Each structure stands twice: as C-alpha cells, then as structure tokens.
TrEMBL record:
Superkingdom of the source species: Bacteria
Domain HTH luxR-type: 149-214
A Pfam match: Response_reg
Modified residues (4-aspartylphosphate): 57
SUPFAM superfamilies the record matches: C-terminal effector domain of the bipartite response regulators (SSF46894), CheY-like (SSF52172)
Protein name: DNA-binding response regulator
Residues annotated as transmembrane: none
GO terms classed as biological process: phosphorelay signal transduction system; regulation of DNA-templated transcription
Keyword Magnesium: no
Naturally occurring in which organism (per UniProt): Chryseotalea sanaruensis
MF terms (GO), sorted A to Z: DNA binding
Residues of the Response regulatory domain: 6-122
Length: 217
C-alpha cells in the first residue's frame, strides 16, 4: 500500500494540470491519482478515487469551482479542497470559503506557496496564500473602522497579523521567514511581541485569542 498522499487535479487547461503535476512530483510523498477538466468530471473522479485532497480551479466550463466544491462537500463533509485560482478578488475568496474549501492559492504565486498550502490542508489546517491574506487583511481593516476594536488589536502591525495567520497555519519560524523574506530571528521577535501584546504564554493561546477577535478565520 502506498504511503503517499493522493491528489486529484481539476482544471480545464491541460497545460496547468501538467505544470501542477510536475511540481507535485518533486515532493516524494505526493501522488496525483486523477485529473478532471470539468466540474462534473471532478465530482465523479472524487467519488471514485476518494483522494486525500483535490486541487480545484475556480473557473470550469460546466460549473464554477464554488459550485463544484459545494457538491463535493455534500458527499464528503471532510473533503480537503484547495482552490487554485487566477483571481485574488475578495468576492471570489469569500464565496470559496463559504463553499467549504480549506485553502486558496493564486496561480501567479510560487510553487513553494502551493506546496505549503497542500501540506497545511492535508494536516487538517486552513491555508490562504500571501496575496489572499492581504485581501483578507484589508477587508478586516475596513470592517475595523466601523466598530470599536480592543486595544490589543489596534496595536497590531500588518506584519504581526501576517505572523499570527502563519502560526495558525502551522508554519515553523524558518518557513515563515522564507515566506516573508525575513530572518528566523525576526520571526521570533514578532512572536515574543505578540505574546506580550495578547498577554498569553504560548502559540495555542495566541491563536485562540486571534480567532476570538476574527484575526484568523
């Protein structure tokens, strides 16, 4: 029995599927077990193959990725769905989250970003790529102007909010440093400052408080 994670690719462009497949092959523990070029085909392939994860395009010829995701979640509430899209629009992102996807990566981002997302979702976490986090953060700030926020949130910098979101996604300090183009020591400094601002003792308490404040989804 294979100990690799099984992955289904759904995108109507064969070139995109081939590129993603070649990227995933570089990780020894991933195996692409099927491909689909439409929403209906993705749903049928998912039901047949029961993969550990499906990477789904948002634009498919018969139904969009949100509709496809909803149908897959209807048959498997625990489905690991990662949206791979050319759009970093707030409306698309919100609708995808509502449809039940556990991750969202923009196609213009790096292969490393996609691998981070795949691993996070396979571990039962949510993962939103750097560009998506920026959209979510901007929306959060817009909402924040309409209501009085706790002092601990007001004092947060944009970088600190990014760090909280990455901690929630399960990244190590080194992975965060690589992603944000800063040093691991700088990441640790941000961690320490966040613990102080939130008056918490560890990362679990930090993420719990951040969820209460809707800093992370």
């Amino acid at each position: 029995m294979s100990n690799k994670f099984s992955i289904l690719l759904a995108d109507d462009h064969a070139m995109i599927r081939e590129g993603v497949k070649n990227l995933l092959k570089q990780a020894k523990d991933f195996q692409v077990v099927g491909e689909a070029a439409s929403g209906a085909e993705a749903i049928a392939q998912y039901e047949l193959l029961k993969p550990n994860l499906i990477i789904l395009d948002i634009s498919l010829p018969d139904m969009n990725g949100m509709e496809t995701a909803k149908k897959i979640v209807e048959q498997d509430a625990d489905a690991n769905i990662l949206m791979l899209s050319m759009y970093d629009d707030e409306d698309y992102i919100s609708r995808c989250i509502e449809s039940g996807v556990k991750g969202y990566v923009v196609k213009s981002e790096s292969g490393q970003e996609l691998e981070y997302a795949v691993r996070a979702v396979l571990q039962g976490k949510t993962y939103f790529s750097h560009k998506v986090q920026e959209v979510i953060l901007n929306k959060y700030k817009q909402n924040a102007t309409r209501k009085k926020l706790p002092e601990e949130v007001i004092k947060l910098t944009n970088r600190e909010i990014e760090i909280i979101q990455l901690i929630d996604q399960g990244l190590t300090s080194q992975q965060m440093a690589d992603k944000l183009f800063i040093s691991p020591r700088t990441v640790e400094t941000h961690r320490a400052n966040l613990m102080k601002k939130f008056t918490v003792k560890n990362a679990i308490e930090l993420v719990k408080r951040a969820r209460q404040l809707q800093i992370v989804i």
